[in-house]
Amino acid sequence: MAGSVKAIVSKKVIQFTPDSSYDLSNVIVNEENEFDVNVINESDKFASFQVELLTAGVDENSHVKWYSISPEVCTKKPPGSETTFHVAIIKAPITVYDTTIDVIIKIFSVEYEKLYTSQKISLTINKPLRSLRVEMPIKELKVTLGEQIEIPVIVYNLSPKFTEIQLSLSGLNLDWFTGGTQRKLQIEPGDSKKTSFLCQPPKDNQTLSKEYKFIIDAGSSTSQYTTREQGILEVIPSGVVEFNCSNKQQIIPTKETKHPNSAIYELILKNDSNSLQQVNISLSEEYVKHGFVIPEAVNLIPGETKTMHLEVNNHRPWLGRRKRQLFEVSVDLTNPNSGEPNTFIFPTPNTQVLELIVLPIIPFILQIGSAVLIPLLLLLNLWLHPKVYHTGAVNSVRLVGKAGKVVSGSSDQTIRLWQVNDGHWQLDINRLKYEGKIASETENKKAVRVIRSSPMDDGVVAAGLDSGDIQLWDTLKREQKPVYSGTDRVFDLAFSQNFRYLFSGHGSGRVRQWDLTKTSKQPSNIAYVKFAIYALAITENQIEPSLIFIAGRYNKIAVWDWNRKIIYEIPYEHIVSKFPKEFNFKPVMGQQNYITSLATANNILAISDNQGYITLWNVNKIHQCINKEAIQQIDKKINTNKNFISNQIKSLECDNYVNAQSSQGHGKQPVRSVALTQNACYLVSVGDDGQVILWDSKYKIKNFLLQSGKIVAKSDTKLNSVDIKALKDDKDDYVLITSGDDNYNVKLYRINGIKDNANCK
């Protein structure tokens, strides 16, 4: 059957020059070494064909692959069909140069051994341009202090002899390398080998942040020819600037007899990073107008500590109580050379809350008298006759800034503002003072579904409406900035920590990313999941990529790595039974099952659903699983997200990411909302049972089960939303909790006696 297959070769004479036909990724850069073989099935059989190249002098046991064929084997084709094979010579089959050899192209059927044919071509092997070649697949690398990074190198032996090649890396500190900076490789003629150098800059501020140039030299034992490759290792800025105040409370009059109406705060700053920092102290303009004198900026070299003095001048009133004023002092870090904000180094903490107490000239005890009864009567009247301002169910509440305000959104199509009174002895029913509407029903025309506050504590909130509109509101100025106007219902919103991005979750299953620094009304990125979205949460830190957690109908949870444009699907499961030493988890994914709320803080993700479950996930573990998946993609040489316009959707295999779970707190009734304190030590939940429950989320977990929480309040109406913040005053550590319900109420509670709130000890 040799005559039953026909082969047509596009070229009869092939030129090949080593080191000039292929780059490191086997991408063809010279077409002289490639040709096509067109195979025609002239038999009466359905057959698949394969092409093989043969030439004299090739070692059959050699592992060197000297040609490539695409496809390797064609699919079964009917009689009369044609298949084109693309052939490329990628290495010299024999290590003899400036010669021409015959190459036999053998075409044969995989199924029928008598169905074959062959063709002969000439292959001219030219002398290589050089006998030795060294390449770095990645010439520019970035590393953080303490991180171990691999510097990969590929060496090609283009000579006709077996060669020992010596590699030497120079230009970087020898102490950074594990395994030294020398490598010896023994390479067959025409072959290549990969090796690498392991580099780990020490985690100290003596290793400055900058670009370090290095060189890899290569020499062989068979030739005086040497070659080299140059790379750049950039040490990324890392570390923090420690910000402290030695005297956080000042009282006027001071003991200073010459200037009794002046107080000075000592601000201590230590540069515990590896880059030069310019430190600026910032204060609200309101305080600058009232006698605060801001110190000039200072420059800090790595490891340096300096003290800045913040002065305040205040006049004492004749009458009244002592005035206690809390104000935030923030630190801004910039590059001393460019003046640009530093995006890698952050102050810790970012702000210090300082206290100024101004005593009246006449002691307050002399002013008390009979007027004491008036506020008591007013307080009793408010207690007996609380006023309701909303006229529809309250869907979302948020503590704004340092918990000085509460913003609520309702089905009555309004957004309202409330002043917080967090005094130690104040009655909870009078902790909120109504300050009016931020947005009226005539402005919105649809129910307000969600309210989220800016992470910058600047009084800015984002609102999502049933109409699909997204708005930004400055609660101080009562000014609106429209972000998006559409028809896709908005169920949740999430800000990035730097306030640059706002993410919105919609009923259509879309998550839209909005760049708030731009005026465009179009999203900068869109992710799509195959379920209605009811909740979003964002987790960010300086090391790991930012992640958006997406949840909703069918109890589905997905994680969007929006930098890499990958969406990972993660199983959400319930504990259904307990064995002596382990738990049995089971996914619950009915049409009527859905996740109602997400909250993140300090590497904890809190999840609630309408079956009454509260679950805590370990965000660090999720990051580890995603990083492992990304490394596997690189090892398999699979294209990264940069080659894709839309997001990839993948199932993420991950174990041991569930910290705890409970369905007992709300009697298995739907849990509508959860929130975490800033340090994730406390969790608050509300639901259809009308209870507000405070959980110790970090230290009362036993065998995956959250222990019983503390009931803060009970009511006979469904609670829709909750928020929490951990605070501290001169008397106690405490938390503030605000809630919104179906009876149009917005409430605030103070829980005292939260010991060691700042450190969760």
Blueprint of the fold:
Elements: E1 5-9, E2 13-16, E3 34-41, E4 49-54, E5 67-70, E6 82-89, E7 99-109, E8 116-125, E9 132-135, E10 140-143, E11 149-157, E12 163-170, E13 177-178, E14 182-187, E15 192-199, E16 211-220, E17 226-235, E18 239-245, E19 249-252, E20 262-273, E21 277-282, H1 285-288, E22 292-293, E23 298-300, E24 305-313, E25 323-334, E26 346-348, E27 351-358, H2 373-384, E28 394-400, E29 405-410, E30 415-420, E31 432-439, H3 441-444, E32 448-453, E33 460-465, E34 470-474, E35 479-484, E36 490-495, E37 501-506, E38 510-515, E39 525-528, E40 533-539, E41 547-552, E42 556-561, E43 566-570, E44 573-578, E45 583-587, E46 595-601, E47 604-609, E48 614-618, H4 619-635, E49 648-651, E50 658-662, E51 671-676, E52 682-687, E53 691-696, E54 701-702, E55 705-706, E56 710-714, E57 719-728, E58 733-741, E59 746-752
Parallel strand pairs: 2-8, 10-17, 18-26, 19-27, 43-49
Antiparallel strand pairs: 1-3, 3-6, 4-7, 5-6, 7-8, 9-11, 11-15, 12-14, 12-16, 13-15, 16-17, 18-20, 20-24, 21-23, 21-25, 22-24, 25-27, 28-29, 29-30, 30-31, 32-33, 33-34, 34-35, 36-37, 37-38, 38-39, 40-41, 41-42, 42-43, 44-45, 46-47, 47-48, 48-50, 51-52, 52-53, 53-56, 54-55, 57-58, 58-59
